[in-house]
Design brief:
Elements (H helix, E strand, L loop, with lengths): L7 H10 L4 H19 L2 E4 L1 H16 L11 E5 L26 H8 L3 E6 L27 H8 L5 E6 L5 H7 L2 E4 L19 E6 L2 H11 L17 H7 L7 E3 L10 H14 L3 E3 L9 H16 L1 H7 L5 H11 L3 H22 L4 E5 L16 H9 L3 E8 L5 E7 L5 H20 L1
Parallel strand pairs: 2-3, 2-4, 7-8, 7-9
Antiparallel strand pairs: 1-3, 4-6, 5-6, 5-10, 9-11, 10-11
Helix pairs in contact: 2-3, 5-6, 7-8, 8-15, 10-12, 10-13, 10-14
Length: about 450
Amino acid sequence: MSLADLDADEAVAGVASGEFSAVDLVEACLGRVAERDGDIEAWAHLDPDFAIEQARERDASRATGQALGPLHGVPVGIKDIIDTRDAPTENGTVLDSGRRPSADARVVTLLKEAGAVIMGKTVTTELAVYEPGRTRNPHNRNHTPGGSSSGAAAAVSAGMVPLAVGTQTNGSVIRPAAYCGVVGLKPTHGRISRRGVLAQSRPLDTVGVMARTVKDAALIADVLAVYDDGDPDMIVRARPRLAETIAAGPPLPSAFAFVRTPVWDEADEETHAAFGELAEFLGEACDEVPLPEPFDHAVGWHRTVMCADQAKSFAGYYERGKEDLSEILRDMIEEGQRTLAVDYNRAVEWRDVLSSGLDKIFDRYDAIITPAATGVAPAGLDSTGSPVFCTLWTYCGVPAVSLPLLEGSKGLPLGVQLVGRRGDDARLLRTARRLVDRIAEEADG
């Protein structure tokens, strides 16, 4: 087995013990890039020499007895809307071609402090919205990898890096993770700093992570979930200790609320059947739970907030080069320009109302279980697929995780989404790991 196939926790242990070096690990990942990225095109910017240079520095630190961070020597991909001073950050638009930030985003600084190797910048859709980038799905290059964190999901799926950092304003972590068959974590809104990340919508923007296992998602999220007074939506609170919590296991068997959501009819028949079978497999541990009528409006309220904020956040792009923006993004910005303040404020205020309503579910159940997408990754590269099964949860600011537990047509992954109580990311990931283990035990048995 190639070192490129190691999970992040295995890579950390191997480098720390001296079984192999950080250079060995990075070279293996670069070899996988050379082998597969010609067809997948997950990277917007990759400098192999710089990646090796960082790995040598990590090996030198270990050789001189310096303290090792929790991600020491592990290569990480960074979505190309997250600022890096050592590499361009072009935000998926020609309007930022050649842009070179003078400072790292807060999450990049934290990764460096943890000993990670910043492998390169992964492809994003245009300004992290809907216009596809050039990345293809590793499972079938004629299918979309999703968006907007398309390159991040594809790079992890193809074994080019064990970890990547993405963002979500609608479905930009969960959907590509589902399509590419990896674990995607969108934490509670305000859990990870967005300083140095392209701003789209303050009430919705969330930094998330991609990994191959729930344990690895917890490992990198622990590194990134550090208070930053440079992000106005972060609050001072105890760090969640995600990896420690999921290692301990749940005190009681997990209970799931199967929530179809108001957009259930947008899922295809294959997804309906698969989730019916999953609910049957879980048996008494899973109850179907309906959502009250106000949740029917969440998708519309989310769009009101997102488009109005895009009109504000992307005003500079629109004014200096709207002809270089895609038609779909121009239309969304112009829709936002027409939004009334009273409608925007109402839509923002309903977020907390709906999130509080979800608390009643989490008083009884460990997690909501629902599709991560309408189905498997659609054929074609002119769309990133529908984010509609992510919209409600992003709007409410609750944590969500996509798990590659099911398989759909043509052998493509079919993602299972678990959703947790706002602020209780640790409980969500603990429940997710137990579900993965339970299904694996059933398969082995």
